[in-house]
């Protein structure tokens, strides 16, 4: 008899904690979203109330949509993030394969060289990076951002992917080699599909800082045509710090696309992170 | 129409990829707030006179302006025209060869020596930025609250504190001011109310000459007055940002705000009925001293590929047309040129009239004093906020600033 | 071992090496090298040996700020270790229990803040904690604690803690997910065997599951360490580069920013900034070194 009771208590404790913390995670977003649809008076007088007939207003959105080019900013962010991810994953997996599969001179040195990049924030090299981009005539282009983010993401990607590649059973590769399959075919057709879960993990870890970065867009690509959403929102907030309708509306606009994408891909994303474990 | 213009400018930016091309000028500035004004008023006015020259106003938020400008100048991607901070910050750029020498350029003759000094080498021989505008500091008051409580704008410090007590008793916030952003504690409060104590230019020059110290009574007294403000500030003011302060005063919940003339435009736009008064003097009859600060200049990037057009632009900046547009459209920034300008806004005009009866000085530490390490501007932000927060005694504040100053400045050792 | 032509290895390695070397490693080495130079008024750089480091570590004008930032950074890290990782562990442990309903939805929602920009996070929390808007205060009032409200972000004693907790709020999803992945990877038979022997869920957790995920906890620790000693954005966007009040929220990232790029009328020094960067690098290197040699060697390797 005792078993079910304690089980029930345990399960309600579980849900209490999980639901409680989930509420804490969502509350700030909820607060911004409800207040974005209120009039100025509504925002100040009752910040916690839902918009009602009296306080409902979309004035903030009207102001923001007329002035800022959120759609363009969003497109820039998406382009930069996707391209960086593709390059990091492809080149990272190739290098990880070479470093964990083959023995050659200087291997340890190269590993150490990459490890260096995990430890030092790339921001410290800003001035040298900018000078380089100027020489390459890449300033105010999205390519500059893609190159920097790729360089920034590679070390961690290589570290995590090597770990996975080492776990792939030897027999698989040896069997292929005996059949006379070339190294490139082995890599692209056997190895890559096998490490897919790991690739998803790396994708999540590299995507977040790239999408949210404020620094390099500010230094390398501040032009209006190349602004990312993070930079756009930051400058917009700076400009309208006192206009809460506009600020709350722009915060909502910056958050919404992320929410939509996340809702669509969250399953794959989470499966990616956890799949590494379920072998 | 507007849409086409935008698409075109987007296209041109995309094509130019940073470095400017003949026929296009790009202006670096920290005046994010004035973007619409430049695009809708100032640039079209310039283009009427100089068709064929495209001008793009590309501001960066004030907090990022200096660091990102330095990075872009070093990397060679900065715009053709550089908006200059006064004194040492721009002097440093000039010494590094990042600003063009402007002596003898057309237009420079329209500025008095007192304006040019903010952007000259120490020996006064080289000018590197054209003076654009000054800002003034004082207090704004909510006319309705003052009328309801039958208060008149205070002239002396006794009247000032009497007014504060009355407002407090009436349940409103007497002074809208926060210390979260720190800068206003120095640029508006300390250097704004201070000149009455240290006698404006006389006190500032005495510090530079090494004849006065921050620990002297005329400086300590300023911190002593600031320490008295705490009970009159809004609850939780240590987390109150400048934007919060603006909201607080604009919404009519505070009676007085220590402000700079640049704030006129914002409060006007919010539809607030307000007036301005100069920092109160110690006793009736004293000559008032105000902080009338040369704040904005504009110079040419030596790496610009389009210096001829940049010079044409500067010449226009020096014209009476620009002086009038800038003073009257960008309310609260006063042209530094010698063209006679009629100021239309009433609050702005009343501030400008202070010049007739008061002595003018600039922000205390702007010239020479900011040059060493530890940097005095940074120190003052911190120390002044702490005094307002009640965490640092006025005497200790004075000692800290003086110690840092004496550390590197020969005449003070 | 494997007979493979050198050029094949080269092709696998070349793209990553090339991009990483030119856009990350070289600029970073260039910066670290700058730490041995100083800058004169005309912007020329001269070799100065260890002068910058001497100043930074021994001259009170610099060292006070540096050690203050260092101390704050250590505090920032410990708050993450004491709050973020235990809560992450708790959430992961609960999620990994058998048959918890809505587990997937909880995961999705708990991970959400991690995806948001720090600019947005900083601004939202500033609004919530703002004494003028009063959201935090009225929330406290509903549970009868209104008088405990303080302008936490503005007080010297609480600003750093508040910012660290905001950072914890945002990044809790990462330790949670890593630990969750490790927990569900534990073979079912191990747990079943213990259960058959009559071990309680509590004991199973402490004596079987926890020891098995130690390597992951080690990984979480080192990721937290590297992340915290590189932190910058949140403090910068909430408190500005001066990291007030009275530098109580100054950490190495903001100290580096001020030194390197300058702030307002304070003129930046790339050479001095590079020296700060080098010291940050050494701090992180020391931490990573301890992890690899002391921690990881002892723990048996376990795939996460």
From TrEMBL, chain A:
PROSITE patterns: ABC_TM1. It is a multi-pass membrane protein. Pfam families: BPD_transp_1. One of its GO terms (biological process) is transmembrane transport. Belongs to the binding-protein-dependent transport system permease family. This is Raffinose/stachyose/melibiose transport system permease protein. The chain crosses the membrane at residues 12-37, 73-97, 109-130, 142-165, 186-208, 246-265. It is found in: Cell membrane. InterPro entries: MetI-like, MetI-like_sf. PANTHER family: ABC TRANSPORTER PERMEASE PROTEIN MG189-RELATED, ABC TRANSPORTER PERMEASE PROTEIN MG189-RELATED-RELATED. Residues 74-265 form the ABC transmembrane type-1 domain. Keywords: Cell membrane, Membrane, Transmembrane, Transmembrane helix, Transport. The keyword Transport applies. One of its GO terms (cellular component) is plasma membrane.
Automatic annotation (TrEMBL), chain B:
Transmembrane segments: none annotated. It is found in: Periplasm. Pfam families: SBP_bac_8. InterPro entries: Bact_solute-bd_prot1, SBP, SBP_1_CS. The keyword Transport applies. GO terms for cellular component: periplasmic space. GO terms for biological process: transmembrane transport. It comes from the Bacteria. Keywords: Signal, Transport. Residues 1-22 form the signal peptide. Its main location: periplasm. Belongs to the bacterial solute-binding protein 1 family. Part of a binding-protein-dependent transport system for a sugar. PANTHER family: ARABINOSE-BINDING PROTEIN-RELATED, BINDING PROTEIN COMPONENT OF ABC SUGAR TRANSPORTER-RELATED. This is Probable sugar-binding periplasmic protein. It comes from Chitinimonas taiwanensis DSM 18899. The lineage of its organism: Bacteria, Pseudomonadati, Pseudomonadota, Betaproteobacteria, Neisseriales.
UniProtKB/TrEMBL annotation, chain C:
One of its GO terms (cellular component) is plasma membrane. It is found in: Cell membrane. The chain crosses the membrane at residues 7-29, 76-97, 109-128, 159-183, 204-226, 272-294. Residues 70-291 form the ABC transmembrane type-1 domain. It comes from Chitinimonas taiwanensis DSM 18899. It is a multi-pass membrane protein. The keyword Chaperone does not apply. One of its GO terms (biological process) is transmembrane transport. Belongs to the binding-protein-dependent transport system permease family. This is Raffinose/stachyose/melibiose transport system permease protein. Pfam families: BPD_transp_1. Keywords: Cell membrane, Membrane, Transmembrane, Transmembrane helix, Transport.
């Amino acid at each position: 008899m005792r078993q079910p009771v304690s089980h029930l208590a345990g399960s309600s404790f579980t849900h209490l904690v999980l639901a409680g913390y989930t509420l804490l995670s969502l509350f700030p977003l909820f607060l911004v979203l409800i207040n974005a649809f209120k009039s100025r008076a509504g925002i100040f007088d009752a910040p916690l109330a839902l918009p009602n007939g009296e306080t409902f207003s979309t004035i903030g959105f009207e102001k923001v949509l007329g002035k800022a080019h959120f759609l363009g900013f969003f497109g820039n962010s998406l382009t930069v993030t996707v391209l960086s991810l593709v390059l990091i994953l492809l080149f990272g997996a190739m290098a990880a394969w070479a470093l964990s599969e083959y023995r050659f001179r200087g291997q340890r040195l190269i590993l150490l060289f990459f490890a260096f990049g995990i430890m030092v924030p790339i921001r410290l090299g800003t001035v040298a990076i900018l000078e380089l981009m100027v020489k390459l005539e890449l300033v105010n282009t999205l390519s500059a951002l893609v190159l920097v983010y790729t360089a920034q993401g590679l070390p961690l990607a290589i570290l995590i992917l090597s770990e996975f590649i080492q776990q792939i059973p030897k027999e698989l590769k040896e069997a292929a080699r005996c059949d006379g399959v070339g190294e490139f075919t082995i890599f692209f057709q056997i190895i890559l599909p096998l490490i897919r879960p790991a690739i998803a993990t790396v994708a999540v870890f590299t995507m977040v800082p790239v999408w949210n970065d404020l620094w390099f867009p500010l230094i390398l690509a501040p032009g209006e045509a190349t602004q990312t959403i993070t930079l756009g929102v930051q400058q917009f907030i700076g400009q309208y710090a006192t206009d809460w309708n506009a600020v709350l509306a722009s915060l909502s606009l910056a958050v919404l696309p992320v929410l939509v994408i996340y809702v669509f891909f969250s399953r794959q994303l989470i499966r990616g992170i956890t799949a590494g474990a379920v072998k | 129409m507007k849409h086409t213009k935008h698409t075109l400018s987007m296209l041109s930016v995309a094509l130019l990829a940073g470095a400017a091309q003949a026929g296009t000028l790009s202006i670096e500035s920290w005046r994010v707030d004035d973007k619409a004004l430049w695009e809708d008023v100032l640039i079209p006015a310039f283009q009427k006179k100089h068709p064929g020259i495209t001008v793009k106003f590309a501001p960066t938020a004030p907090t990022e302006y200096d660091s990102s400008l330095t990075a872009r100048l070093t990397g060679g991607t900065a715009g053709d025209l550089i908006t200059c901070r006064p004194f040492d910050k721009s002097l440093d750029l000039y010494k590094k060869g990042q600003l063009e020498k402007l002596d003898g350029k057309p237009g420079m003759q329209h500025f008095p020596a007192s304006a040019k000094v903010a952007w000259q080498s120490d020996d006064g021989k080289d000018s590197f930025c054209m003076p654009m505008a000054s800002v003034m500091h004082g207090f704004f008051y909510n006319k309705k609250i003052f009328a309801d409580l039958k208060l008149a704008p205070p002239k002396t410090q006794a009247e000032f504190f009497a007014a504060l007590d009355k407002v407090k008793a009436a349940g409103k916030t007497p002074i809208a001011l926060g210390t979260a952003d720190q800068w206003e504690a120095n640029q508006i409060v300390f250097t704004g109310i201070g000149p009455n104590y240290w006698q404006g230019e006389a006190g500032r020059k005495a510090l530079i000459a090494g004849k006065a110290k921050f620990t002297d009574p005329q400086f300590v007294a300023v911190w002593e007055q600031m320490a008295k403000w705490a009970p009159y500030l809004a609850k939780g003011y240590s987390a109150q940002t400048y934007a919060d302060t603006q909201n607080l005063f604009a919404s009519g919940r505070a009676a007085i705000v220590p402000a700079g003339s640049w704030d006129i435009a914002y409060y006007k736009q919010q539809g607030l009925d307000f007036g301005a008064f100069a920092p109160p003097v110690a006793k009736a009859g004293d000559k008032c001293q105000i902080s009338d600060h040369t704040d904005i200049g504009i110079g040419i990037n030596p790496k610009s590929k389009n210096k001829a057009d940049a010079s044409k632009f500067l010449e226009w900046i020096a014209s009476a047309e620009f002086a009038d547009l800038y003073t009257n459209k960008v309310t609260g920034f006063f042209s530094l040129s010698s063209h006679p300008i009629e100021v239309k806004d009433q609050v702005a005009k009343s501030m400008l009239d202070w010049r007739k009866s008061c002595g003018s000085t600039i922000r205390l530490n702007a010239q020479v004093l900011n040059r060493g390490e530890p940097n005095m501007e940074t120190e003052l932000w911190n120390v002044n906020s702490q005094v307002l927060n009640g965490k640092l005694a006025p005497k200790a504040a004075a000692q800290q600033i003086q110690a840092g100053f004496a550390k590197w400045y020969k005449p003070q050792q | 071992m494997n007979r493979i032509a050198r050029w094949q290895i080269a092709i696998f390695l070349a793209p990553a090496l090339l991009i990483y070397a030119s856009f990350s490693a070289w600029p970073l080495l260039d910066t670290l090298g700058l730490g041995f130079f100083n800058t004169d008024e005309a912007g020329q750089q001269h070799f100065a040996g260890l002068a910058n480091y001497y100043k930074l570590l021994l001259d009170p004008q610099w060292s006070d700020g540096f050690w203050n930032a260092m101390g704050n950074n250590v505090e920032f890290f410990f708050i993450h270790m004491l709050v973020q990782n235990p809560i992450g562990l708790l959430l992961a442990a609960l999620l990994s229990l058998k048959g918890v309903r809505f587990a997937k939805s909880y995961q999705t929602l708990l991970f959400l803040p991690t995806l948001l920009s720090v600019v947005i996070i900083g601004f939202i929390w500033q609004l919530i904690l703002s004494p003028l808007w009063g959201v935090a205060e009225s929330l406290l009032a509903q549970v009868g604690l209104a008088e405990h409200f303080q302008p936490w972000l503005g007080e010297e004693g609480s600003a750093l803690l508040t910012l660290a907790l905001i950072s914890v709020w945002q990044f809790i999803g990462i330790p949670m997910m890593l630990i969750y992945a490790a927990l569900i990877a534990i073979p079912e038979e191990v747990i079943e065997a213990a259960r058959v022997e009559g071990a309680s869920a509590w004991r199973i957790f402490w004596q079987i599951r926890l020891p098995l995920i130690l390597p992951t906890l080690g990984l979480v620790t080192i990721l937290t360490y590297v992340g915290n000693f590189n932190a910058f954005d949140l403090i910068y966007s909430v408190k500005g580069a001066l990291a007030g009040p009275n530098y109580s929220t100054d950490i190495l990232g903001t100290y580096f920013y001020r030194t390197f790029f300058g702030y307002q009328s304070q003129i930046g020094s790339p050479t001095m900034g590079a020296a700060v960067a080098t010291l940050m690098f050494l701090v992180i290197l020391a931490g990573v070194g301890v992890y690899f040699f002391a921690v990881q060697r002892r723990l048996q390797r376990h795939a996460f």
